[in-house]
Amino acid sequence: MTDWIRRGVALVVLAAAGASHALTITTNFASDGERIPSIGLATAAPTAVLGGGDLESIVRAAADAWEALIPDKHDFTLSFGWYDTTLVSNAAYHVPGAAGGWPTRTLSGSVAFNSNLANDLKMFVDPTPTVNEEFRYDHRTFLDLGAGPIEVSRQYVGTTEASRSSIDLYTTALHEIGHALGLTSWDFYNQEASDGKIDVTLAPFAGTDIPIHSTHLDLPDSMLSKWRFWGQRREITQTDLLAVCQINGFSQCEFELAPAEFAGDLNDDGVVNAADYTVWRDATSSAARAADSAQMTAGYDTWSSNFGRTFQQPETFSGDYNADGVVNAADYTAFRDHVANGDLRSDGNGDGALTTADWQVWANRYGERSPAATTAPEPSATFLATIAVLTACRRRR
Predict the structure, then answer these.
(1) Residues with Cβ < 8 Å from 254, sequence gap 6 or more?
(2) Domain residues of the chain, as ranges?
(3) Which helix or strand (DSSP H or E) is residue 82 part of?
(4) pLDDT tens, 123-136?
(5) Burial track 113-130 (b if 16+ CB lie within 10 A, e otherwise)
(6) Residue 86 CB neighbour total at 10 angstroms
(7) pTM for the full model?
(8) 317-369 has which CATH code?
(9) Strand, coil or helix: what is 36?
(10) At what angle are helices 169-180 and 55-67 packed, to 10 degrees?
(11) Using CA atoms, how far apart are residues 150 and 336, in angstroms rounded to an integer?
(12) Residue 348: what are its φ and ψ, rounded to 5°?
């Protein structure tokens, strides 16, 4: 069976097999006035959040997502709450708690989510964080980081006014728990990160080198990247999971993640049709189909069960044909490729055809930036360590 099928079409079956998990994340919510360990006294929730959900449910859903992918036995305690994080981050930050055992792993940590009323970065508090009904699928991206293709991006874009104009708190919670589970300033992480990458030894990705910057993955679209955009939801990718598992010495991680919502749309044109069957057929030899008929059938069934389904394309502002928030030379490259493939993401004037008029839209808006392309940068590990020390000193007084 080819790597493409093993890591792509057939993922939905393998995810079900790993439903039982042994990683246990205990989540402790600090209400207004209660202490968040190593951080301070929690505040009330900000009044300007959008969506109508609550922080406790968001963090629990994010913890469940991580638990489901790591069957290795390990107990971790996460304390969290609302807190004024303005001096550190406009969204949230993590402070490590304790570490121990063999191999050395994080045992506890704390996360503060910004409650500052003056914060102009609105947060989307999804009442149903495990369902993406306020978002639509945007894309998945695979890169070869040294040992074959690996998923580095899994993204959705907001479809409601609230989800489009805010930072997704569920994505933020997934991100901060990723830090808490190992991408933090402990010696065991710093030693691995000293050469600017995580050297992977875990099968089936042994030989992969994950680029890092401080305690973040140096892959702009990954969930554990330093940057997040308004109106965007990111989910755990193979690379995010692999980084956490390698740092902790977890050996049973479920790298065969369930597919995103485009299941069956194998050529990424927004429609599940006969062309996708051709992609599936061409990616697998007759010998491979005979040798692993169960997996091959699963891939075919995924396609056939979604046949005829149309997936909405991500919204962009006209001329921004690669949806990165800026109209620049990269969008011309995207336009050229979309014209070759008949991809209507470069239909800048919305007339249903790709013509020179769409090129003119790009040319007219060259240099413009989408108002949604505002990022939420993460604080540095050094700064967070300083905050933790100062907090400890204040408690001693």
Answers:
(1) 14, 15, 18, 68, 69, 70, 71, 241
(2) 3-257+378-396, 264-310, 317-369
(3) strand 74-83
(4) 899 999 988 888 88
(5) bbbbeebebbbbbbeebe
(6) 12
(7) 0.66
(8) 1.10.1330.10
(9) strand
(10) 50
(11) 26
(12) -65, -30
